[in-house]
Amino acid sequence: MTRMFSLRALCATRLGLTAALGLMAAPAQADIKTSTVHIWASQVRVRECSNTSCGLASQERLTNVNVQAFCQRWDGRVADGPYYNHYWVEIVTPGGWLGWVSAVYVSGGSNDGPVPGVPVETNSGPVYCEYP
User: Deepest in the core among 11, 33, 52, 67, taking most CB within 10 A?
Assistant: First the structure.
């Protein structure tokens, strides 16, 4: 399992070397924008993708903590008591792991609604979650 920052650094290095060797034009630098979101629940698992069928991104479990969110997408439904949602939020854990949590456990949203302030991925763009 690769930490987000290591993976991005590796990709940037490979693209930079390729551009330096003249094999392709240098890529434009994309601003990575994040939003701070609050995980309100206890022992929330972080998944490798946006569905409960996915493996765990890390052994870290989140409890009442703020994390950085990149985007969110509509995928596998999660229900917990009176709360339910199809949205999943791509986050970076306090330990530095990139992964997904159900919007059910993120403060501020409503049942089957996106988390306010976090870009929503759409098929027509302009927001695409960076990692599936």
Answer: 67
Which residue matches tokens 């987000």?
4
Q: What is the DSSP letter of 103?
A: G
Whole-angstrom distance, CA of residue 44 vs CA of residue 89: 12
> Strand 83-92 to strand 98-102: parallel, antiparallel, or no bridges (unpaired)?
antiparallel
pTM metric for this prediction: 0.74
In tens digits, the chain (132 residues) has pLDDT values of 444 444 444 333 343 433 444 444 444 445 567 899 999 999 999 999 999 999 999 999 999 999 999 999 999 999 999 999 999 999 999 999 999 999 999 999 899 999 999 999 887 766 677 654
User: Phi and psi of 5, rounded to 5°?
Assistant: -65, -35
Give me the amino acid identity at 15.
Answer: L
The secondary structure of residue 33, as a DSSP letter, is: -
